[in-house]
Amino acid sequence: MARNEKEAVDVVLVGAGIMSATLAVLLKELDPSLKLEIVELMESGAVESSNPWNNAGTGHAGLCELNYTPQATDGSIDITKAVLINSQFEVSKQFWSYLMDKGGLGSPRSFINPVPHLSFVRGAKDIDFLKKRFDALSAHHAFATMEYSEDRGTLSEWMPLMMPGRPEDEAIAATRVESGTDVNFGALTKELLNYLSTLDGAKVTYNQKVKGVERNGEGWSVEIQDTKQGGSRELSARFVFLGAGGGALPLLQMSGIPEGKGFGGFPVSGQWLRCDNPEVVAKHQAKVYSQAEVGAPPMSVPHLDTRVVDGKKSLLFGPYAGFSTKFLKNGSFLDLPLSVRPSNIGPMLAVARDNLDLTRYLVKEVMQSMEQRLDALRKFYPELDPADWRLEVAGQRVQIIKKDEKKGGILQFGTELVAAEDGTIAALLGASPGASVTVSIMLQLIERCFPEQVASAAWMSKLQEMFPAREKTLQDNAELYREISARCNQRLQLDEPVSA
């Protein structure tokens, strides 16, 4: 393509992961006349955090993740975050079901499978916490099917791989929600990108490196270099979405919007132990979460997961945290130092000062031997055979560092939507639970950046068609929650058993 060739579109989305793919499809469903393009640095979509081997803890619905239900000093359990994430996952299921009805997605088994979600604890203190958590959650209609047990016979049925070899006097307990899922967001992303390719005015281009993002009247000019064919071009757009995972922060800084000043990134890499031995895999049909170590980031909560990728089951255990200055798995070691700005160096130094536990934890994780990693797995699976497990490097996560009036800066886990005041550009920063609540996050973006269109009769009607109930309604209306959830489960074939 000729250098500096210019083209005008309505929307440019940077990064061909689950976030951009979801937003692009939502916008085209709301306004089929929109002209949009997704530009991706790699040779295909879903290479970074959306890749199934880079985001092991998928299918987050607040059912088993203990860090979503913190315990207050008075001993009470706050279930607010778990209920919110559960309702957001149900919103995601509504969108996928809507696309299934349209023929926009292939077989649901290609990206979502039923896998029970369990929380597992050891010792009197954690058992007391788990029981209180169960009492609090099971009283809410979204968690009414949750079961609790300390009975070893019951636990052997729930976790047949994890019980043999365990000391008889070990105090253990677990909760289970049978209706949990495993989601392959890489496969889902590719389904969405394929669907987009069938729509007029939608395009996905690869090997595209964004070199500049600048104001252009009421919109933006995006300078793009073709890394394979050479040459560059310029896209003019009324709206730009920076959905490049860990790479979104440098792009946000490139835009120069005041709302992006003060943000920094703390990259954390992950490693997993993976098992593909069919005999072992067949004995564990669950995602089992436990308590994180003191000082560990929420994304490092240990869990032993069933994964279903391309129709084949595997087990993953971890994560084991690591540190790299890259913002993307395929990024540069200069990503972190080049992200330092006068506006964010203060918050970044404050976070370094206030998170010594995290620093010590990361150093300890990086220095671990394979045997030490296996010892952590033995707390879940006492009779493991080391020959069945191999170490794999997962994707990069860039946790958010932001300004704080009291502390100077805080390390924020989760996701944050950063948008310009005029709504013409937005970036998504952060990580978990990310992919599982993508649809809710992208709906928030649409409401913030397209307020006039959202208020129109056409968009309101279409949104109601796609989403019969949003988060607040799902949280408050038990009957409607059960009705819509059952309908989605049927459409996504989640009420049918998955083959071994």
Automatic annotation (TrEMBL):
<comment type="pathway">
    <text>Carbohydrate metabolism; tricarboxylic acid cycle; oxaloacetate from (S)-malate (quinone route): step 1/1.</text>
</comment>
<dbReference type="InterPro" id="IPR006231">
    <property type="entry name" value="MQO"/>
</dbReference>
<dbReference type="InterPro" id="IPR036188">
    <property type="entry name" value="FAD/NAD-bd_sf"/>
</dbReference>
<keyword id="KW-0560">Oxidoreductase</keyword>
<keyword id="KW-0274">FAD</keyword>
<dbReference type="GO" id="GO:0008924">
    <property type="term" value="F:L-malate dehydrogenase (quinone) activity"/>
</dbReference>
<protein>
    <recommendedName>
        <fullName>Probable malate:quinone oxidoreductase</fullName>
        <ecNumber>1.1.5.4</ecNumber>
    </recommendedName>
</protein>
<comment type="similarity">
    <text>Belongs to the MQO family.</text>
</comment>
<keyword id="KW-0816">Tricarboxylic acid cycle</keyword>
<keyword id="KW-0285">Flavoprotein</keyword>
<dbReference type="Pfam" id="PF06039">
    <property type="entry name" value="Mqo"/>
</dbReference>
